[in-house]
Write a structure and sequence with these properties.
Length: 561
């Protein structure tokens, strides 16, 4: 029996799942270890469904599961109903629930399933606790959006005489990070220093994330630079920090350093670096990372696939985004949201609305980001009626309370339709203070409005929010000029000059390898401008020879650049 079980374990260890299954069928006798090996082997290789199937066969074969059997099975559970059934099986099997390992597995399972009250029920009935018990409970609070309650449990843990380990401290710092509780997080990190955990990369990674989310970028960089030995978890946090604060080049530099150090890349690393690639001008970096994703076999990871869709959508390659979205085996709400926003931002507003309808047909409940993407599509397309219907039914139909970004889309739709009065009424009834985007929409609509008081009010508000924007001064000057108020026009222009406000020129750019070429209205600002003009002259000459334009037009175009 021992020999058969050892052979079975070896086959799973080397990934020979089919041979392991055949061997298991040929075994003349099986004990609980044999069944556990099969369940564990399938689970560790990602075949969760097969693992649960073997567990069902084990019960049909009247083999009594052990505590280890249930701990493996609980790690495979993904539905609340299944979890409760397994819990019932444990009770019926007569196993002692005071077993710390078994109870900890139950707490962890219920926390993962977002059933925190059941996790507490198991915790409170345990006769003996250990640090893992507390860690599972506190982590469950964080996953179930009870972060503040998790901090209370951490205080109870310490007052009960239990010493936290590095995993406890990492979990608690993550709770503070999610709550944006910087001061509490700093106190916890101070305790880490006192306990000697400050050099632990798990704790440091969580602390870097805390500083990053609480807008303390410099502190994140300083802490990262103080660490002598890097690992992938630490680099993941720092790459994410760089991307969050707009330092995409630094994120790429650190990513290259991890490749050179032969670190084991994770799906979180690739997702973060793809986010930075979508912010760069050159598409080459993004496609190179996509190739790396394929090479490492991460293309079916939901978080990586969603990041690929987002990257291609942001750089305008919407067809590539559609293709990747279509190959995704499992689509979560983030994936749907990314695709809807991608359509809305790339001039495919009707496709965004169709995607929204497909999401609803799948029985997926939209969130605030989904509805913001749909309203953005309606705004870009000028679909005022459709947008207003969705906006008015957000709370009742989907349980989403409208926020500032939703109001911004509706106000923009109103302004495009020439309904400035209605847009102003919406702004005045908003539960929150309007942002700069809402006021800019109103300001653009003011150009065709005859009410000078409204124009002055909106323009002055934009000036207060963004003092260096050119638009409010332009709108005011035009309004005064139309009414013949030349003194007011002169006053506006003097205010612009005193504040150093200049009109921004339209520009476009193209990235070739590591160099970005910027083209403004006039002239062309780049190092090889003479070469560019030379190529343009050659192109104009060829167009003349082919008969597309006349000689006079070509000379005029060349003279004016």
């Amino acid at each position: 029996m021992v020999t058969w079980n050892v052979m079975l374990t070896g086959l799973f260890k080397f990934g020979q799942l089919e041979k392991a299954s055949l061997l298991f069928d040929e075994m003349p006798e099986r004990d609980v270890v044999s069944w556990n090996t099969m369940i564990s082997g399938y689970a560790s290789n990602g075949f969760v469904g097969y693992a649960l199937g073997v567990f069902g066969e084990m019960q049909n074969a009247s083999v009594k599961p052990s505590a280890y059997t249930f701990s493996i099975v609980m790690s495979c559970i993904s539905a609340a109903r299944q979890g409760k059934q397994v819990h019932g099986s444990i009770v019926r099997s007569g196993l002692n629930l005071s077993n710390v390992v078994l109870s900890n597995s139950l707490i962890n399972m219920y926390s993962k399933l977002d059933i925190i009250d059941y996790a507490f029920g198991v915790f409170l009935t345990m006769e003996e606790l250990d640090v893992i018990s507390w860690n599972c409970l506190i982590l469950g609070c964080g996953k179930s959006d009870y972060g503040q309650f998790g901090l209370v449990q951490f205080s109870s843990m310490r007052s009960s005489g239990y010493s936290p380990d590095q995993h406890t401290m990492s979990i608690v710092i993550t709770l503070c990070s999610n709550l944006r509780a910087l001061e509490k997080g700093k106190q916890v990190f101070g305790l880490c220093v006192k306990l000697g955990f400050h050099s632990n990369t798990i704790v440091t990674s969580a602390t870097i994330d805390l500083f990053s989310k609480c807008s303390r970028f410099e502190d994140s960089v300083r802490l990262f630079e103080e660490i002598q030995i890097w690992d992938m978890a630490l680099c993941n946090s720092m790459i994410s920090c760089y991307v969050r604060h707009g330092y995409e080049e630094d994120a790429f530099w650190l990513f290259v350093m991890t490749l050179r150090a032969s670190f084991q890349l994770t799906e979180f690393t690739l997702s973060s670096i793809l986010s930075s690639a979508s912010c760069l001008v050159s598409v080459e970096q993004g496609t190179q990372i996509h190739s790396l994703v394929l090479k490492l076999g991460f293309e079916y990871e939901a978080i990586v696939a969603s990041s690929l869709v987002d990257m291609y959508a942001k750089v305008g390659l919407i067809d590539s985004a559609i293709r990747i979205f279509g190959t995704m085996t499992s689509k979560d709400l983030i994936s749907w949201n990314t695709m809807i926003l991608g359509f809305a931002r790339n001039g495919k507003e009707l496709e965004a609305l169709k995607m929204f309808e497909k999401l609803l047909e799948q029985g997926v409940l939209p969130d605030r980001i989904t509805l913001a993407g749909v309203l953005l599509a309606c705004s870009h397309r000028g679909l005022l009626n459709e947008g207003c219907v969705i906006f008015s039914s957000m709370k009742e139909k989907y349980g989403v309370i409208p926020e500032t970004d939703h109001y911004a889309c509706v106000v923009d739709m109103m302004c495009q339709a020439g309904k400035l009065t209605e847009a102003m009424q919406i702004v005045e009834t908003m539960p929150r203070e309007p942002n700069i985007f809402i006021w800019e929409s109103l300001l653009c609509a003011c150009r065709t409005n005859n009410d000078l008081q409204v124009i002055e009010r909106v323009a002055e508000t934009v000036m207060k929010l963004e003092p260096h924007i050119y638009l409010p001064y332009l709108v005011l000057a035009q309004a005064y000029e139309v009414r013949g108020r030349w003194e007011s026009v002169a006053r506006v222009r003097k205010a612009m000059k005193d504040r150093g406000i200049e009109k921004l020129s339209d520009c476009s750019w193209i990235g070739i390898k590591n160099q970005v070429f910027i083209f403004e209205e006039n002239p062309v600002f780049l190092s090889e401008s003479e070469g560019v003009y030379l190529i343009l002259r050659l192109l104009f000459r060829e167009m003349v020879d082919e008969g597309y334009i006349c000689e006079f037009c070509a000379n005029t175009a060349i003279d004016y650049g």
